[in-house]
Backbone:
């Protein structure tokens, strides 16, 4: 699909993690876009946070400790979805997801959306990173079963915990009474990631308050 400059990715992580401590979601968007020699799409307007050729990059960074095994299941906010409470929740969620994807396609002349998921965490001076890339599901073509505000893909209702196997869910957000978050759940296999590394990021930016004042004075 797209090629990563993995050494460049590691180098960028080292630079930004040394500066920021914990790399922010916006910085991750820049790092990933640079790592594929693509273009970053700033702001929180489009589903595509970056692009390379005909590919839109839906970049999500999750600050998570890694599981002991290779398999890890995580969920993330895909978008916000304002819906009238009287509408069909499932239809409204899927409609929003498709519209946001198509807006990116139209605006930037793209034809494929890729989910780029970064699992990352910091342990003292070790910054641990795993990057996964896969073609985004065509949500409108999934055979989903909706139960209340959650969507399931082939749920085994004979099991007591089947409601935990949701794939998409809509939950109340904090923006307003009708502004909600749409979560997507994915399972990741460390053996299938495009990058899996640890870089040493020593804290070279520790300064005293006096040193901070002196540096600040120089730019005033």
Residues:
């Amino acid at each position: 699909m797209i090629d990563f400059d993995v050494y460049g990715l590691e180098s960028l992580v080292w630079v930004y993690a040394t500066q920021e401590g914990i790399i922010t979601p916006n910085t991750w968007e820049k790092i990933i876009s640079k790592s594929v020699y693509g273009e970053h799409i700033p702001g929180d307007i489009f589903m595509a946070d970056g692009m390379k050729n005909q590919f839109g990059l839906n970049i999500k960074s999750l600050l998570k400790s890694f599981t002991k095994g290779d398999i890890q299941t995580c969920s993330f906010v895909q978008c916000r979805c304002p819906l009238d409470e009287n509408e069909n929740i499932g239809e409204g969620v899927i409609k929003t997801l498709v519209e946001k994807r198509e807006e990116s396609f139209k605006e930037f002349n793209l034809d494929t959306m890729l989910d780029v998921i970064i699992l990352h965490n910091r342990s003292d001076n070790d910054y641990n990173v795993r990057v996964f890339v896969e073609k985004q599901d065509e949500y409108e073509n999934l055979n989903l079963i909706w139960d209340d505000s959650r969507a399931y893909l082939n749920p085994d209702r004979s099991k007591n915990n089947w409601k935990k196997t949701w794939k998409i869910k809509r939950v109340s957000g904090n923006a307003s009474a009708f502004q909600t978050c749409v979560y997507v759940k994915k399972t990741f296999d460390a053996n299938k990631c495009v990058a899996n590394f640890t870089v040493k990021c020593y804290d070279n930016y520790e300064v005293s308050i006096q040193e901070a004042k002196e540096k600040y004075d120089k730019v005033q």
In short: The chain has one domain: 6-218. Helices lie at 6-20, 25-35, 89-108, 209-218.
